[in-house]
């Protein structure tokens, strides 16, 4: 059998917009990570950026299941002694919900230069307004499973 590899010139990238109102964080992050990597395309090549651009609006209306609002914690360290910063999910959602979504999606992309480049194709906004009308993004509706 013959296998053809994709060239970067032949890749067609699209723009998608997702309304995150009422969608569970993990389900949203996994679907967006697949779209950013291009794994939903038949031409997927692991070492080429063949993913699409994704715009997420209404990030502040995201949903977390169970007791994650009170129990989930995000850790950052400044690499200085005593520089550990611990934030709860509830505090982060109140302050900047877009950061919560970006962290979740970043964890699902590869930790390489290609993964960092694919993360730049993600745009998250807390309101329903975005600056990418010129790209004519398609509306992408995620299937929501009942819990």
The CATH superfamily of the domain at 15-64 and 101-139 is: Ribosomal protein L13
Helical coverage, percent range: 25-40%
What general form does the structure show? globular
Total number of strands:
6
Ends distance: 44 Å
In the predicted model, the low-confidence regions spanning at least 5 consecutive residues are none
Strand order of the largest sheet: 5-2-1-6
Please tally the helical runs, counting DSSP H or I stretches of 4 or more residues.
Answer: 4
Secondary structural class? alpha/beta
Largest sheet: 4 strands, parallel
H/E series, N to C? EHEHEEHHEE
Mean pLDDT: 92
Cα radius of gyration in angstroms: 17 Å
Quickly give the CATH architecture of the domain at 15-64 and 101-139: Alpha-Beta Complex
Strand content: 15-25%
Task: Produce a short descriptive summary.
The chain has 147 residues and is α/β, with parallel strands linked by helices. The chain has helices at residues 25-37, 68-71, 89-106, 113-119, and strands spanning 15-19, 53-57, 73-77, 84-88, 122-124, 138-139. It is globular, with a radius of gyration of 17 Å.
């Amino acid at each position: 059998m013959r296998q053809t590899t994709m060239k970067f010139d032949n890749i067609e990238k699209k723009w998608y917009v997702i309304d995150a109102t009422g969608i569970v964080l993990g389900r949203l992050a996994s679907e967006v990570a697949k779209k950013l990597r291009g794994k939903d395309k038949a031409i997927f090549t692991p070492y080429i950026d063949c993913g699409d651009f994704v715009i997420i609006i209404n990030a502040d209306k995201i949903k977390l299941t169970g007791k994650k609002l009170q129990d989930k914690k995000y850790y950052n360290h400044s690499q200085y002694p005593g520089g550990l910063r611990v934030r709860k999910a509830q505090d982060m959602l109140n302050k900047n919900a877009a950061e919560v979504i970006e962290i979740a999606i970043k964890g699902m992309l590869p930790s390489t230069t290609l993964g960092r480049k694919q993360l730049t194709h993600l745009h998250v906004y807390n309101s329903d307004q975005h600056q990418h009308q010129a790209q004519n993004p398609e509306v992408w509706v995620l299937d929501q499973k009942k819990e």
